[in-house]
Amino acid sequence: MKHRLYRAVMSLLGFAASCTPIMKQMYGPAPVEYGTPHTDLVVKGTVTDQDGKPIPGIQVKAFRAGVRLMAQETDASGKVEMGTEEYEYGYEPNLAFEDIDGPENGSFAPDTLFSKDLDAKQIAPGDGHWYGGAYEIVFEKKLRPAGEESE
Hints:
The chain has 2 domains: 30 residues; 105 residues, Protocatechuate 3,4-Dioxygenase, subunit A, CATH 2.60.130.10. It is α+β, with helices and mostly antiparallel strands. 15% of the residues lie in helices and 40% in strands. It is built from 2 helices and 8 strands; from the N terminus they run H-H-E-E-E-E-E-E-E-E. It is elongated.
């Protein structure tokens, strides 16, 4: 019994010693790391038809395992740019393309770019703790007319 009490007291003293002002002065404050590793993510690119003509009105959705992360519609030049903060580190998203403006700019078949076909480049460093930095995915996607089979 005496040894158990001794061990308990000594372990408490060890924890207390690790937070002394001298330790803080030598090593700085201990980082508080709650949550999950995360990054900032930017997705940008261009959507065109098979002839290279930009397509406005295409909704581009970034998703992972059925969860939509962000979505944005292409502008008049077929371009899209969207971003999110605190994206779960280590998971590259898939991109889904859907024609949402009807036949106004032609009708296009939905399509998907999978994460294995995308290249995420680091554009800002992390802090060495939970923040993994900022990443950017740049894509170019050619859509087929509605009714055509994809390759």
